[in-house]
């Protein structure tokens, strides 16, 4: 299994990235802020795009280190990667299946099966661990509804119907999300999903977590030789990493949502970590973003046992494991793609 390397997050604005030997140098107004070796990095994520030297981008491209540029509030701008090292036969198989909606549905339903299964697991866990703080009857009712939807998802071979079933599951799950927030409820609440821009503290954190997870998943797919921009559930759209969005569906609740809930319920992030713009958009402060990223890196280092492979690995390697399994399925080594079904 691939070794989990570090990600360098550059959160301070107006920082220019340069190369010095085998090191990345952080410069601001010609002042050197830091110097880090590149050999133990797998990616660099920079907030508030100022720039990176061609020498650094060339070095990173040659050594399979991605450079991602985001706005200060976490919106994706660009990703710099090297030449594709994917197996051409593997990618041609991916493109053929993606062009066929029936074949795409047979792959996509497993992404959605994993997503709904893991959401159901989260709901059931809440009923066991916090029965006095939630509406257990409502949680059980929606859990049963998700079980019924999984039966239909498993048999579905139509993309549009599959999207409809996924939408029904999302609506049911979102009805309970606010109850999963156990602390700081006056300042952290979830009524509905809002993005571009997020309009409350919780949606701001969810959007940020999804951006980070999508980037990790895209990098994992490219590493095993797949094209992160050609998906099965999410169809082609210029600039959208559709396959990364497909694969991350399984991890969206079990990793990203649980992570956000833990930051709120453990009071790692509080109401003073946000500010509102004139248009109503809610953003995290620089200090909050640093706390968020530090906790994200720590979570990625936590050890788990992969539910299908049975191997011990870091949480941060879950996207890589799923990318590897998808590649094996496309090569014909597996009868179907095994989704990440958390236990």
TrEMBL record:
Its EC number is 3.1.-.-. It comes from the Bacteria. Its cofactor is Mg(2+); Mn(2+). It is an enzyme of class 3 (hydrolase). The keyword Hydrolase applies. Mn(2+) binds at residues 166, 234, 249. Pfam families: Cas_Cas1 (PF01867). InterPro entries: Cas1, CRISPR-assoc_Cas1, CRISPR-assoc_Cas1_C, CRISPR-assoc_Cas1_DVULG, CRISPR-assoc_Cas1_N. Keywords: Antiviral defense, DNA-binding, Endonuclease, Hydrolase, Magnesium, Manganese, Metal-binding, Nuclease. One of its GO terms (molecular function) is DNA endonuclease activity. One of its GO terms (biological process) is defense response to virus. The keyword Hydrolase applies. Belongs to the CRISPR-associated endonuclease Cas1 family. NCBIfam families: cas1, cas1_DVULG. CRISPR (clustered regularly interspaced short palindromic repeat), is an adaptive immune system that provides protection against mobile genetic elements (viruses, transposable elements and conjugative plasmids). CRISPR clusters contain spacers, sequences complementary to antecedent mobile elements, and target invading nucleic acids. CRISPR clusters are transcribed and processed into CRISPR RNA (crRNA). Acts as a dsDNA endonuclease. Involved in the integration of spacer DNA into the CRISPR cassette. Homodimer, forms a heterotetramer with a Cas2 homodimer. This is CRISPR-associated endonuclease Cas1. It comes from Ammoniphilus oxalaticus. The gene is cas1.
């Amino acid at each position: 299994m691939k070794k989990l390397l570090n990600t360098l997050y550059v959160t301070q604005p107006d920082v220019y990235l340069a190369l010095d030997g085998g090191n990345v140098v952080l410069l601001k107004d010609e002042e050197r802020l830091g110097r880090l070796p590149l050999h133990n990095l797998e990616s660099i994520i920079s907030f508030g795009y100022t720039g990176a030297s061609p020498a650094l981008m060339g070095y990173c491209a040659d050594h399979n280190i991605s450079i991602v540029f985001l706005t200060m509030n976490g919106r994706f701008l660009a990703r710099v990667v090297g030449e594709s090292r994917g197996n051409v036969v593997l990618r041609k198989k991916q493109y053929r299946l993606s062009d066929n909606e029936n074949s795409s549905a047979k792959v996509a339903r497993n992404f959605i099966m994993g997503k709904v299964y893991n959401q159901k697991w989260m709901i059931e866990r809440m009923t066991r661990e916090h029965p006095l703080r939630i509406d257990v009857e409502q949680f059980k009712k929606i859990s049963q509804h998700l079980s019924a939807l999984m039966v239909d998802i498993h048999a579905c071979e139509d993309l549009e119907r599959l999207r409809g079933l996924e939408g029904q599951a999302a609506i049911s799950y979102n009805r309970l999300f606010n109850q999963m927030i156990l602390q700081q409820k006056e300042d952290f609440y979830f009524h509905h999903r809002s993005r571009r821009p997020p309009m409350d503290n919780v949606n701001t954190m969810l959007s940020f977590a999804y951006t980070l997870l999508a980037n990790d998943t895209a990098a994992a797919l490219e590493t095993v030789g797949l094209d992160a921009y050609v998906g099965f559930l999410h169809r082609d759209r210029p600039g959208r990493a559709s396959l990364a969005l497909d694969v991350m569906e399984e991890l969206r609740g079990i990793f990203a949502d649980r992570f956000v809930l833990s930051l709120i319920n453990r009071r790692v992030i509080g109401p003073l970590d946000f500010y509102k713009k004139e248009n109503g958009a809610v953003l995290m402060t620089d200090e909050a973003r640093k706390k968020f990223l530090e906790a994200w890196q720590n979570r990625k280092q936590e050890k788990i046992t992969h539910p299908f492979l049975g191997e011990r690995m870091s949480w941060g390697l879950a996207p890589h494991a799923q990318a590897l399994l998808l590649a094996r399925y496309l090569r014909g080594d597996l009868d179907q793609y095994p989704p990440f079904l958390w236990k």
